[in-house]
Amino acid sequence: MLFVYVAIAPLPYGEITRGGTLTLELFAFTTFALTLFGQPRLARLAGVRLTIASLTGVAILGIVQLVPMRIGLSGRIYDDAARTLKAFGRSGPMPRISIAPAETWDTILLTLAYAALFVSAVLLLRSRTRRRLFIAVFLGSALLQILIAAAFRDSDRIHGSFVNPNHFAGYLEIALMVAFGVLWREILHYRDSARRVVERARRFENTFMRISLRVVLWGTIAAGIGLTQSRAGIVVAIVVTLLLLVIAPAHPRINQRRLSFAGAGAGIVAAAIGFTILTVRQQPIIRFLGSDPRDPASDLRLTLWRLSIDAWRNFPIVGSGLGTFREAFRRVQPRDFNFYVEFAHSDSLQLLVTGGLIGLALGAIAWIALMIALLRRWHHEQRREESALLLAAFAAMLSLTLHGLVEFNLSIPAIPATLACIAGLGWAASHGDEEDDERRQLRLVT
């Protein structure tokens, strides 16, 4: 079920629909229940319990927001609604912190679904065979999305099954970082692959083919991001890739050959970037040149962020209710601001308005704790393939962190759900290969 989910993730819930989120939740909770039924090794969750507890804390905050009580502005909103309904002979709703209880309940279920997918991935992807198959399914799905979107595009910007090209770029950023992990794993192994082949020509052919296929894979996904023409997506992809080229060779295991690996990685990624440029040509550059950074007032995001801060001030501690940004924003929206606003175009601001300082703190703890845990495990991991996957999971989270400063990717269910699976994949890799352990024990017994 986990493999099926990651294959079809963008299809039913690229758009924000109740049917799509319900499908995601059913997949997540059923997979989680079946995983626990198999009596997994829960000790694998030891290093990420803070993240799981914080995510659960966000869901508990949402439940508290649904408890009948009258607090601050939320109480006055319910009083106003009761007076209006009374004029029509109807009783008012029960006062709560959340100003849209149905939306808060949906968000609680989604948050728990993300946690369930993360835990399931950690417990299920316990062998290299499973992890490799999972990566193949995920990257295959992403490539299929790109090819279909490029072949049947209805505008200059491709968007796949997502409504907004920027969100498609956010989804592809996850795939790009996993593809980098696959490529870096091959760079770490290329000498070993070469040693297994005696003849020079065959050695060159073996090494060249293996690396070339991974270069094309990375370049195709990067080209997909370029074809979305998402300015933030392109900048984040470039920045994080350059950062990985600095971080990856700093691993203690390759300390003696750091410069050679850094040079090899930079050269190969440069070739992949060249492939990407040849594929997308000048289209993303034209969109960058089309924006005028000297006129920030022309960008609606700045106005949205300012008004979002005003909305947060109305519900500073516990927020307006998870999933209620639209309703909270309406109270501060100027009459001449003629837009239907559902999202803050900033993941952190979105959580600040709907969860208040408590919600933002819980979300930050969950996110930062997991990123630190992945990076620490990568630093201590001696196995090359596993270290590459840990680095890829960290990079995927870092990409959406940076992109989330100006976009609302985490409000599109397919993206955080897929990220939860990839983060779980990385953490599962840090516990080695259960199949290898079983074979080792069998040899000892023999």
In short:
With 446 residues, the protein is mainly α.
State the low-pLDDT regions, or none.
14-19, 193-198, 292-298
Q: How do the SSEs run, as a string of H and E?
A: HHHHHHHHHHHHHHHHHH
The total number of structural domains is: 1
Mean pLDDT: 84
Structural classification: mainly alpha
Termini separation: 36 Å
Instruction: Please describe the biggest sheet, giving its number of strands, its sense, and whether it closes into a barrel.
Output: none
Q: Using the CA coordinates, give the radius of gyration.
A: 24 Å
Helix content: over 70%
- Tally of helical runs: 18
Mass-distribution shape: globular
Report the strand count.
0
Beta-strand share of residues = under 5%
Report on this model:
By secondary structure, this protein is mainly α. It has one domain. It contains 18 helices and no strands. Helix 3 packs parallel to helix 6, helix 7 crosses helix 9 and helix 15 packs antiparallel against helix 16. The longest helix is centred in the last third of the chain and has 34 residues. The two termini are 36 Å apart.
Fold blueprint:
Blueprint: H1 2-8, H2 10-13, H3 18-37, H4 49-66, H5 72-86, H6 101-124, H7 128-151, H8 165-195, H9 200-228, H10 231-247, H11 258-280, H12 283-290, H13 300-314, H14 325-330, H15 347-380, H16 384-403, H17 414-429, H18 434-445
Helix pairs in contact: 1-7, 3-6, 4-6, 4-15, 6-17, 7-8, 7-9, 8-9, 8-10, 8-16, 8-17, 9-11, 10-16, 13-15, 15-16, 16-17
